[in-house]
Amino acid sequence: MQVDLIQEARRQAEICNACRYCEGYCSVFPSLHANRSFSDGDITQLANLCHNCRGCYYACQYTAPHEFDLNLPAALAEVRRDSWETYAWPQPLARRFNTHGAAIALALVLGFALLFAAIKALGSAGGEGFYAVLSHNAMVAIFAPAFLLPLVSIVIGLRRYWRDVGGQRLTLADITGAFGRAARMQDLAAGHGEGCNFEDEDRFSQGRRHVHQAIMYGFLLCFASTSSATVLHYVFDMPAPYALFSLPKLLGISGGLLLTFGCAGMVALKLKSDRHVGDVKAFGGDIAFITLLGFVGLSGLALYALGSTPAMPALLAIHLGAVLTFFLLTPFTKMAHGFFRLTALIRDAQRKRLSQ
């Protein structure tokens, strides 16, 4: 990891530890105040606990022009991004995609090209609906590795993270407590449940919490849609296409709507926010990835709506190309933050349990 980023975050954390004005703002400060000194692993853990709600920055009396020049949300955001890049495997890809929106756009174009080429080369041996364009076996051959290989990469990264932050043997209570906080997006409600200062320093808002929830639950519903279709296909011998009121369609449409509107809302909030209170270098990569994720939802909805028209083959290639790009980039983009933040919450729950 970059030593200068860790050192600057440590300097600011030590000042915050002496001040303690922001105690109770979010899960960062109880964890910060539990230490008298901070190892590199401690700083990495604090960085991944931080949700960049910015309340501490706007409440702080030691920001510029004070000589302490504190900007803890930005310092932790830089360490957080550096930690994802350091723990990612293979590492060079993460350092490219986390900060370069153009690289994500290029990957998307390549994803489209690969799917158009696959459709042209493999075609279909016969089938209904989407399978009339690309066979089921061909889809499985393309997307199974595209899903499993990034999953392996994430597991490798999380194991490295867990080791460096001092993680120990887990209990069920550690895991359930962390999942509960993540499901409620509790830290995005800030200390007293008023919300973030993400959009405007003088205004508390639940907007960022709500769009985060829309994206998270939209993604989970889309994943559930694909999973239910897989069960119907292999267990009940009910291949696609499915009716409008079938489980895969209902889950997919609701998930696609949440994902599309959630990502649009997140982009709007980021464009209104003060960039210098976050990781400036990662802004372009963040916007590009959120746009990609929203496009996955939007193209899926378009495919649902126009699946029985002559536009279906082109829409299928576009949607599957976006999904393929999303899967392959998952360990190397902002998507990784969900896995690392959940792991940080589990480690924090463990810290609380062991300190009792």
From TrEMBL:
It comes from Shimia isoporae. This is Citrate/tricarballylate utilization protein. Coiled coil: none annotated. The chain crosses the membrane at residues 101-119, 139-158, 214-236, 251-271, 283-306, 312-332. Keywords: Membrane, Transmembrane, Transmembrane helix. The lineage of its organism: Bacteria, Pseudomonadati, Pseudomonadota, Alphaproteobacteria, Rhodobacterales. Signal peptide: none annotated. InterPro entries: Citrate_utilization_prot_B, NarG-like_sf. It comes from the Bacteria. The keyword Transmembrane helix applies.
